[in-house]
Write a structure and sequence with these properties.
Two copies of one chain form a homodimer. Chain A is α+β, with helices and mostly antiparallel strands. Chain A has two domains: 122 residues, Sandwich (Immunoglobulin-like); 232 residues, 3-Layer(aba) Sandwich (Rossmann fold), CATH 3.40.50. The first copy, chain A, contains seven helices and 19 strands. In chain A, the strands form three sheets. Chain A has an eight-stranded mixed β-sheet. In chain A, strands 4, 5, 8, 9, 10 and 11 form a six-stranded antiparallel β-sheet that branches. The longest helix of chain A has 18 residues. Chain A is globular. At the A-B interface, strand 9, strand 11, strand 12 and strand 13 of A face strand 9, strand 11, strand 12 and strand 13 of B. Strand 12 of chain A pairs antiparallel with strand 12 of chain B, so a sheet runs across the interface. Chains A, B: Keywords: Signal. Chains A, B: Pfam families: Esterase (PF00756). Chains A, B: This is Enterochelin esterase. Chains A, B: GO terms for molecular function: acyltransferase activity, transferring groups other than amino-acyl groups.
């Protein structure tokens, strides 16, 4: 178990928000609890309802230890036993990558579980979110997350993907399913959506509430990390597009009970994965009918000329990113007759909580025309 | 991709062994290469054909940095730029857990991938093995490794297991398969066999060579880590036996196309997982017909009275463990008419290379009586 503990921070979260306005003193003493994504049995790192992160590590001979989170390094303090403790300023709700710095060495915090982001496996922490029930591990029927290894001639490699199949997939062996191809961002990989993204739990929960149709999700590495960050102009979509469209999709259609047509195929991505989604869906109008961009670009109506209108265009962003640009773009698409939907994740930035919420909002809109 | 690179150390490994005897000087300069289980793009840690491990980390302000592997701490040395480098003595072939120590802080090496062992996710390294082709990622048909989440009433939790299905499982939807339940050791968990154990790749390779019948493998957490290491006398098998036999096996038989009878069910485990295997197979003769213990105990003939003889008893160990005890026990079993097989992994100890090889030896012996 990756220790997806069933936390009930929901009520405490609301109380804490009330307190912040009324009594800053009381809130400063907000109780710290172990992060739900700690290593088994590890008390630290901790988080409180204000979103502060507290880390602790034994380093008796060290002269300087820092907590590095959200682009800020916080000095930690040593006690008589050589144990260092430190706290961050409040962080946004949801998941964050972080690390420790011990006498100049940047290392993972051995107390946390590890997640792939920033081009490496490193520490992650879960700051209590008022809406965290939607991605919690609950006692509902669970789908599977399957690791497949598929042969790619174009790259001369064996490549990995994760495939989510919904809870009843094995119990209804005649039924066929639509497919969502879901991409991570720069510095991440195919593990990011099933691990910190909790894609499987989000869909399990929606299905348990009858809020979405069942579908398969396929998550593979988008080959985004071979360029320098920000070098989008130099990014060539062709190698990944070939792997995705000419190799992975045929493999999935051969090995899973898919509805193998455009109407039953969606593509979505976050950040650089959204950039990829836009390029691939524009290049391959015959392959996908549902397009979704999370925190990464928009579609202009003129980019979508000369094709049947897609079934759905979904564009999302965090409220701390560029919500006005997204709303405006979707409004333009709607004026031109597109079925376009915008979503703004409140009080979040370019981080995974925005993208978990985006998937949660997107799923019920997918494949609605299908029986 | 977990960067299972296709290494060809095989030839170099043999050459190196020849050199060791003839020219110690030359061998001391054995070339270091990045470990195949490094983080993407990470040059360090490195290994050479002698089995030495070389680590490197930037820690400009540190006063003491050590490499901690195989129960020994090796001092590393700092250069002018504040980068520390150090080397271990030669290690046995195969996989090893290790960590770094920076001014008294024990931390994972940020250069390596992370594996669950010693009760935590930490660094691992792959020392070139002369026989490593048997667990290499090759361009052969690959089965899937599926994460399932199943409800456990007896523990009031949702629990995780990984399920390996062979390459043709999805392509032959009428076929049913036998099942091996495969347990990790103390301090490890359900990820240990599919990650550092490479169980899926070992079976993929055997199947590609026609050396084994296809079967499903189920790997779940054996609840071994809640006791103090060595406290076997206090270990109560009942909670895990209930999860395994009364909850997980029915879930697997409901969700997978299994041959759901004793003749088609095997149990194997390593170290404390072998101890569990012995207890469960002795308690539940009606559930399993193939028993396998890797580096953890033996069966005495008198323990197997009052039951139909199992189809197979397989007992293995590393040559650096207790090979004579294993051979002697198997000889006793054979005298009593049991189909018992021993296997000794040459030049390995109580580590994962012994257990990878044990699985490789066991698989062809499983379910032979079945069509």
């Amino acid at each position: 178990m990756k220790h997806y503990k069933l936390l009930l921070f929901l009520t405490l979260g609301f109380l804490s928000q009330v307190c912040i306005g009324q009594n800053q003193q009381a809130t400063n003493e907000a109780e710290f609890k172990p992060s739900p994504v700690n290593q088994p049995g590890s008390e630290y790192p901790m988080v409180n309802e204000k979103g502060q992160v507290r880390t602790q590590i034994s380093a008796p001979e060290a002269t300087k230890v820092q907590l590095d989170i959200g682009g800020v390094k916080y000095d930690m303090a040593k006690n008589k036993e050589g144990v260092w403790t430190g706290e961050s300023a409040p962080q946004d709700e949801g998941f964050h990558y972080y690390q420790l710095n011990i006498d100049g060495a940047s290392v993972p915090d051995p107390g946390s579980l590890f997640f792939f982001g920033a081009n490496r496996w490193g520490s992650g922490i879960e700051v209590p979110a008022h809406d965290q029930e939607f991605f919690a591990l609950k006692n509902v029927p669970h789908g599977k997350v399957e690791q497949i290894l598929f042969s790619s001639k174009s790259t001369d490699t064996t490549r990995r993907a994760f495939v989510y199949t919904p809870p009843k997939y094995d119990l209804e062996p005649q039924k066929r399913y639509p497919v969502l191809y879901l991409q991570h961002g720069y510095g991440e990989n195919e593990t990011s959506w099933p691990n910190q993204g909790r894609a499987n739990l989000i869909i399990d929960n929606l299905l348990a509430e009858g809020e979405t149709k069942p579908f398969i999700i396929v998550m593979t590495y988008g080959m985004t990390n071979e360029i320098e960050f920000g070098g989008l102009r130099d990014f060539d979509i062709q190698p990944f597009q070939t792997v995705l469209v000419d190799e992975l999709i045929p493999y999935i259609d051969a090995h899973y009970r898919t509805k193998a047509d455009k109407e039953n195929r969606a593509m979505a991505g976050l950040s650089m994965g959204a950039f990829e989604t836009k390029l691939v869906t524009l290049n391959k109008p015959e392959v996908f009918s549902h397009y979704a961009l999370f925190s990464g670009g928009i579609y202009e109506p003129e980019e979508l000329q000369d094709r049947t209108k897609p079934e759905l265009i979904f564009i999302s962003t965090g409220s701390k990113e560029r919500p006005d640009a997204v709303k405006s773009a979707v409004s333009e698409l709607q004026k031109e007759g597109f079925n376009a939907v915008s979503y703004v994740s409140e009080e979040t930035a370019h981080e995974f909580h925005t993208w978990r919420r985006s998937l949660y909002q997107l799923a019920p809109l997918l494949f609605r025309a299908q029986k």
